[in-house]
Amino acid sequence: MEAKNPGTPSGGGREEEFPLSEKAEGPISAAIIAAGVGCTALGLLTTLTEADTTVRDGLEWSDSVGPLSGKTILAVVVWLLAWAVLHVALRNKPFETVRALVISLVLIALGVLGTFPTFFQLFA
């Protein structure tokens, strides 16, 4: 019997030349971390619109939607920019996806905290 490489996935298809741990996981990690950055941006913008009327008025890009229009559009722009920058920075790196997941979960938690009314109303 032939010994299987522990780094290759089981199932159909061709076996890979080297274990998964030796592959550059930077692009995957960049996408995961960028999601957390986007969530944090939304939480920060939500808190800032509650804290400052100038920011609220500046983010009101649609009268029918209110400042939510500016908050969500800017959060998406921040997410896309973070993804692009992190992709370039980590594209050839063996960055661990587990570490990226932990970083992203912390950033998502901060973003969720920033969108809770009991939190952002403290700054009103």
Give the SSE map.
Layout: H1 26-51, H2 53-58, H3 67-90, H4 97-115, H5 117-120
Helix pairs in contact: 1-3, 1-4
In short:
The chain has helices spanning 26-51, 53-58, 67-90, 97-115, 117-120.
The number of helices is 5
How many DSSP-defined strands? 0
Oligomer: single chain
Tell me the major beta sheet.
none
* SS strand fraction: under 5%
Computed over alpha carbons, the radius of gyration is 20 Å
Order of helices and strands: HHHHH
Task: Describe the 3D structure.
This protein is mainly alpha-helical. The chain has five helices and no strands. It has helices at residues 26-51, 53-58, 67-90, 97-115, 117-120. It starts with 25 loop residues before the first helix and ends with a helix. The mean pLDDT is 84.
Descriptive terms for the model:
124 residues, 5 helices, elongated
